[in-house]
Amino acid sequence: MLLSLITIASLVGSSFQYPINQPKIDPLDYVDLFYGTENGGHMFPGSTRPFGMAKLGVDGIDPSFGDAYSGYTPGGVITGISMMHESGTGGAPEYGLVSQLPIIGDFDPSVEHNLTRSSHDVAKVGYYNFNTTSGIVAEFAAAERSGILKYTFPSGTSPQLLVNGSHHLSAPKRPWWTQYFVNGSITADADLSGYSGHTTLKGGWGDLDAWTLYFAAKFDTSASSVKSYEASKVSENSLQASSTTQDGSFGLVFLWDQNHIVQSKVGISFISADQALKNIDNDLGSDFDLEKTVQDTQKIWQDEVFSKIDISSENATIASYLYTSLYGAHLLPSNRTGENPHWDAPVYYDDWFTIWDTFRCLNPLFNIINPSRGSELVKSLIEIYKHDGYTPDGRSANQNGRTQGGSNSDILMADAYVKGIQGIDWDDAFEAMVKNAEVAPPYWHDSFAPDADTKEGRGALPDWLKYGYVTNNYTRSLTRTIEYSYDDFALSVVAKGLNNQTAYEKYLQRSSNWQKIWNFNATAKGKSYKGFIQPKNADGTFNSTNYDPFDCGKCYWGDLTYEGKAVEYGWAVPWDIETLILFIGGKELFVTRLDDMYKLHGTQEVADVGNEPSFLTPYLYNFVNEQYRSVETVSWIIDTYFTTGSKGLPGNSDAGAMQAWLIFGLLGFYPIAGTPNYLITSPKAKYFSINLDNGNKLEITANGLSEQNKYVQSVTINGAAHNQNWVDHSTLFSKGGSIVFEMTNDPVVWESGTAPPSVGHVDKNN
Predict the structure, then answer these.
(1) Of 149, 209, 628, 664, whose Cβ has the fewest other Cβ atoms within 10 Å?
(2) Of 306, 313, 284, 225, residue with least CA distance to 8
(3) Ordered structural domains, the chain, with CATH
(4) What distance in Å separates the CA atoms of residue 383 and residue 344, rounded to the nearest whole number?
């Protein structure tokens, strides 16, 4: 087996530059691919490359586990090894097609063939292995758009390989969002050296129209015979099978007389089966070299991802958090440049799942450590706008859908703009943003939210343009009002940079519309203070129907707020915290109300740390120069809600958003998306080095850091004393530099400078 032949740590040489007396560590030793696969994390543990189109992994069924969002289940049975998956998503399972399954014994199309594990699966970066009770051992590794699979069969058996053309992930727990097989066909090569075909699916979380994936495969040794099946009919020595029956079954079964080991290479394409075959050649060449594929994949991960941040070696848990999270943050979206079936795109990414989840900290992370990808992502959004009419919030299988709140690609693009990301036509980007802000998308029926389009754009835009807020005539009225305000702030940022003063003033004013839904007299049970965001009617009166700022019902598509309570969304105005402090009633009450969000300070957990609306909230103490409270709250969240292992995430990864939040928590600063500013907390290791694409590095040192010494006594940035608890992007990253923290066990107010700026502040008469 592969792992007995190679030592993972020796595959990729480490080139880290640590301070004197700091031993080097190999990131590959610290990456846990099963991290977050359970407890609702939905992480994909299979083999892939950064933003890889091919995500090669096992598909399982385990009723006790629930729906297999990434294909993987820790128990139950394995029903296939397929070429496409998503990672860390909510909604419902997506993809899981182009499948193989090694089998022994008679093939019976009337039963679902599966495999039972004899031990826990093994996964390392670039490599996956599982053993079965039947004695079959499966190993595989993915390249960019193809993969190599190796099956070792017990001696004395006749190896068979079931290629299930209709295999796909389903959603038994959420049947309204399940995928459906539409049609497909498969043909074996005349010499039985491989096969090719296509599969068409529809449905899924995005209610997608029918879409097609093509595939091709080559064996290292031609099979001895093949049979086809369609539903319950088996045809011996038949090279072809197909089906046009919804959720029908069809495929081929290859048999080898003597082979103990069977290897195959499988390619996928949205263009054609011929292109799928070319993808095999481009990725893997003519050899069947599993070990080399693993080595190549690990080097790519090392060069593009792991080498971007070095860490001191005193805390293995923190190192594991860092490198495991960096891995999980670089799985989506999928790079499908050259694989767009609808137009010839110079750069193209799919599987945005979703920008609502990622704009707050994942995309800002890319803009620091992987700006070339950050540029490609924005350019891809512009491409989608030009050809599909709107930038997406969610997108998969080359189709937009769904949008949970606002058109938050606006904030993603604004963040890239203020961080100086290169290679982007900002006039085109701003045009796409204006389309979101001014033109309501055509109606697209969503049974969960039939009031307006949820496929793209801003479905409740008519209310927004007429009233300056969204009424309860639309679902998620509070979420939409807050997020449309943030989106318009993003437009003002880019407009100002483009010297479009008229647009800047217009959208800056519109960004203050959240103030219109602040009810100074709104109350909450058990709270002595007043003032919360609350829905408004068209006539300007507040609507109290089903309203409780601390209760959002199911917090889902048909409610007032999405995946967060009204009290949580009330904090989500980071461009104008100055006004929020004023509305709340001053700094002291601001702190009291922040304390009430967390069980650390209060009696209940109000802020949902596993959902994005509250990602920034624990950092907001910085705005009243009580940074030590941010430090202790962020530290408490990490210590309480995160752990190592398969249950280590406090909820969905959300395409790496949760991992990005953790990475910033470890580094000791956090972005305010769409602005150049970061809020400073404290690092969780004594030393980090962020190695920048421009050849410079930002070194972060925490002198005296210990479990007790988690608070900041003083900060030095680039050799100069720093008395503010925030810092801007150019200071840290334009030329690199250093942040030196002097740590203490006393929660002190060390910052004597100005509080973080409210860069979108508008003094508006309510």
Answers:
(1) 209
(2) 306
(3) 35-304 (2.70.98.10), 352-665 (1.20.1610.10)
(4) 10
Beta bridge partners of 122: 129
- Distance between CA atoms of residues 87 and 358, nearest Å: 13
pLDDT digits (tens, 9 = 90+) for 153-183: 999 999 999 999 999 999 999 999 999 999 9
* Residue spans of alpha helices (H) in 193-315: 273-284, 290-304
- Specify the pLDDT at position 1: 40
What is the structure's pLDDT at 554? Answer: 95
Contact 654, 608 (CB under 8 A): no
Provide the angle, in degrees to the nearest 10, between the axes of the packed helices 426-438 and 501-511: 40
- Regions of the chain where pLDDT drops below 50: 1-18, 20, 766
Q: Which pair of tokens denotes residue 63?
A: 């009723």
Using alpha carbons, select from 516, 517, 491, 515 the residue that is nearest to residue 505.
491
The C-alpha atoms of residue 504 and residue 486 are separated, in whole angstroms, by 14
Specify the pTM: 0.97
Token pair listed for 645 = 């292992």
Adjacency order of strands within the sheet including 737-744: 309-311, 687-691, 697-703, 737-744, 711-717, 720-722
Check the CA dihedral 19-20-25-26 and report its sign.
positive
Task: Give the full edge-to-edge strand order of the sheet including 250-255.
Answer: 57-61, 77-82, 99-103, 160-164, 250-255, 225-230, 233-236
On whether the CB atoms of residues 301 and 327 are closer than 8 A, the answer is yes
pLDDT, residue 12, reads: 34
Q: Which two tokens stand for residue 268?
A: 């996928």
How high is the pLDDT of residue 233?
A: 97
Can you read off the two tokens belonging to residue 10? 């020796």
* pLDDT given at position 2: 36
